[in-house]
Amino acid sequence: MPFLAHRTPAGESHLLIDHLNGVASMAARFAAAFDSAEWARFAGLWHDLGKYSDTFQAYIRTVTDPDAHESETVKKIDHSSAGAQHAVASSEILGHLIAYIIAGHHAGLLNGRDSGACLEKRLAKTVEAWRHGLSEQPEPNLPPLPAFIQQALSKPRESAFTIAFWLRMLFSALVDADFLDTESFMDEERKHQRPMWPDKILVQMEEALNQFIAQLPKTKTKVNDDRQSVREACLEAAERSPGRFTLTVPTGGGKTLASLAFALKHAQKQGMKRIIYVIPFTSIIEQNADVFRKVFKILGVEGVVLEHHSNFDPEKETTRTRLMTENWDAPLIVTTSVQFYESLFANKTSRCRKLHNLAHTVIILDEAQTLPVDYLKPCLSALKELSEHYHSSIVLCTATQPAVGRRDDFHIGLNIEPDREIIPNPEQLYQRLRRVCVNDIGAQSDEQLAERIDEHPQALCIVNTRKQAALIYKVLGAAPNHFHLSALMCPIHRSQMLGEIRNRLHTEQPCRVVSTQLIEAGVDVDFPVVFRSTSGMDSIAQAAGRCNREGRMDKGQVFVFKSEHRASERFFSETAGCAEQVFELYDDPLSLEAIEHYFRLYYWSQNDRWDKKQIMQKYQLLQDRSLPFSFSFADTARDFKLIEEHSKPVIIPWQEEGQKLCAQLRAMPQPSRKVLRKLQRYTVQIPERTWNRHLHKSFDWVHGQYAVLISPALHYSDEIGLALEGDHVNSDFWIM
Predict the structure, then answer these.
(1) Which domains are assigned to the chain?
(2) What is the per-residue pLDDT across 105-115, written as a single tens digit (0 to 9) for each?
(3) What is the mean pLDDT of residues 36-62?
(4) In angstroms, rounded to a whole number, what is the distance separating the alpha carbons of residues 216 and 214?
(5) Which of 127, 234, 435, 541 is paired with 547 by a 20 to 30 Å CA distance?
């Protein structure tokens, strides 16, 4: 009887040899982008060798759809260890490289050696006879290694990360090919819902962008002239060869459309496939993605802009875009720093499928300076790999350069040549776009601050904690023209509030806002006066970007103050301390020289923290023929968390639509994906300790999975958001 790989519910059989050849061919095509086609081909040919066993063949003839990849954790017959063992038998040393990705192609990349599941144990495992199936395919020898991997092996102490990163990319090519080939046979409808992009899609997108820019209002202002010069500099720089670039543009300088113009032209010139925007804050993502959708609406092509983040509006999601999030098969992806970097260090197949699509890509890192100090070395190492070995260009796009460039006192930084700064004279551009004066007004009580805010018809006050935002708002007093914003308000509530705030600003009505830092990064508002509690200089620069944004005044006023709640702001004490030193030394604390001094204090002098979780030490080359490559992929995925998971969600039945969705959630035997995605817009994250204390007291536990606020009239207000009884003194609840 023929050997089978899969069977459909209708009983149609997918021949194993067809599956192996199909995966091998597709994986090779994916890995050709980083000169590794033959290695991916071998991984594809060998990944399911264990399915030749009599036990698996008997099993597959008695069940339907045993391997449709619906879950990575479903217990099945082990059919991956055989291929891993065959790889090592084919080449005692180098075979371990393919063994990692074959052994992990369902459960995820393993640690090399561990007390639990690991590659070493899989290689020693007794597997059922399968070699009789090799008569279906030739017995090849492993191909030569790519040149950059050969070079890495000659420097074993320095290059283990390079080799491990290459394995991640090969793993991505294999698992994406495996999913797609299986899907092609098992689910014809789903296969046809995946996009087929025209060869000239980037050309069409560039034409759409040019048309969009041509239709923008031609108001002759100094700011618009400077934005035009930024765009022209980006187009000129796009002619350069791939590599690492910096784009130093002050807030309000038009870098969103300018960087897009660079990326589209550069991608075409260099034969790149897509553009990825990596943004630290969902508020910027939503805003930028909306701009991009307006730009490309004229194309009439669904999914040109793919948003991949937790706050994505489900009303914008389609089956096509949902499928694209699996492997980032789209021309333009807009995602979060958390999604991007944690995927680079993940081990599960669902997170890794997209990685091979980072090759031959323009990667725009917006607000690049926001990387946590404790993860600098692994993050920057991954960016080096992408630009040096995967034919991608990295653009560090920020108002506060230099943050992560290499220098004598920051040897882990990215080596960026001076001519790779896209703006010819960043200091000159900063002076031309300087629209604010920054003043240090020292310590301020909440009452003093409220009095200062009340002196101005339109003013924005940004503080470091939810608690202080609520307290200052209370002192300021409830009024139709007073607004409060914090993460204790669900996203849809915040969006409505921002809409009202923008309308008041546009119509020149009184508008005073007290907010946490969620408003300062990328949220398009323009106040004549901004107050900012002391924090890092990059945050202060972002706050300044909400002041006199359109240059309607000669100079807007930014007042930096020390809060009376500094004891509860320990999280910000380090960056605030560095900023205070800068204020003492520079008349203009936002000048490029002052910002450079800030990063010297905050980033460059903290080498003991650059890899706090010791991620880079989890990859070693050993003089051990039984395990020559000791890579701890599972431990890395566990430890690499840009945001520690110490908060839990509460669903808020806010207004009529929120109440209706919560009622649907309770009524459904099994909540639908659509309802759950909509409820993300009605969710507030709170500390786990607070969440546990209020479960069954203030929250219903629906379907044993979802906490729903019981009495929104008591615990949720249109002014403050969520306010749980007894937590007004709990600093954990109010932080951030």
Answers:
(1) 4-187+618-639 (1.10.3210), 201-427 (3.40.50.300), 435-589 (3.40.50.300), 647-734 (no CATH)
(2) 999 999 999 99
(3) 93
(4) 6
(5) 234
Q: Are 231 and 223 in contact (CB under 8 A)?
A: no
Q: Which two tokens stand for residue 455?
A: 């002196």
The mean pLDDT value for 552-578 works out to 83
CB-CB contact of 122 with 81 (8 Å): yes
Provide mean pLDDT across the span 484-495.
92
Paired with 364 in beta bridges are: 277, 395
Taking alpha carbons only, the member of 333, 319, 328, 318 closest to residue 351 is 328
Rounded to 10°, the helix 222-237/255-270 angle is 20
State pTM to two decimals: 0.86
Closest CA to 146 of 33, 285, 296: 33
CA 64-69-72 angle, 5° bins: 120
With a CB cutoff of 8 Å and minimum separation 6, the contacts of 225 are none
- Contacts of 715-719 with C-beta under 8 Å, sequence gap 24+, read 716/652, 716/654, 718/493, 719/473, 719/478, 719/484
The pLDDT score that the predictor gives to residue 432 is 86
Distance CA 25, CA 27 (A): 6
Distance CA 453, CA 530 (A): 9
638 CB neighbour count, 10 Å cutoff: 13
